[in-house]
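Supplementary Note 3. Input sequence used for the single-chain structure prediction.
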Amino acid sequence: MVTRNGIRVGLYVLVWLFSAVLLGLTATRLHYTLRLPPGDPLNNGNSFYDPIVAELLVTSVLAMFWSSFIIHVIHRSYDYGRISSFAGELVGLLGLFALYLVGAAIASTYWGNLFWCHQFWQCRILTVLVAFAWMCWVLVFALVFVSAMLAATNGAFLRPLHGQYDARDSFFQREPKRRRAWCF
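The predicted structure, written as discrete structure tokens, is reproduced below.
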């Protein structure tokens, strides 16, 4: 039987896998552009890098760390304070959403139509890079939607994101420390 947490973990695993592929593609592109051979026709053989490729590399690394952390929290049912609530999850997902949207949109602007040069492996790398950037964005969008709907229907934005709430053992139910007045 499929559970809500099982679907979310599955989506996070897909985000991790697609981000790992995107990390490899961006690393390949950076390796090529930073070590151009002297006779290469690209940029007259002068080494360079595309800033949007560096942004997608950083975004994919952040997505891998974030999805690993969330999978850990859901699977182990740990409470790490506000970061492990639905609101914390949505803040992290919305950050990844914005980063992937900007990266995929700018990469599509630069390399949206490279069919004229598919005989070169770098053009094929750029085409796949753009495709995986958009696929990561779609998965993060799906996770934002699923998590927001789950939190909204249960009224659990400030509750633990793993969905197993125990008031006796939760960070969220602790009473604030009452301080005594300094003169008493």
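The CA atoms of residues 57 and 123 lie 18 Å apart. Helices lie at 4-34, 51-76, 86-111, 121-154.
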